[in-house]
Amino acid sequence: MPSIRLLLNQLNSVKGIRFNESQIKKTLDEEFDVAIFPEMFYSGYLTRDNVNLLLLDGKFIDYLQDRIGERMIIFGAPFRDRFLYNAAVSITEDDVKVYRKIHLPNFGPFEELRYFTKGDSPLTINFKGFKIGIEICYDLFFGDSVERGIDLLVNISASPFTSYPFFERVFPARAIENQSYLAYVNTAGLQRNQVFWGGSRVLDPDGKDILRLKNFEEDRGTADIDSEVLEFSRRKRRVLSEALQDAEE
Question: Which domains does the chain have, with CATH numbers?
Answer without folding.
Answer: 3-248 (3.60.110.10)
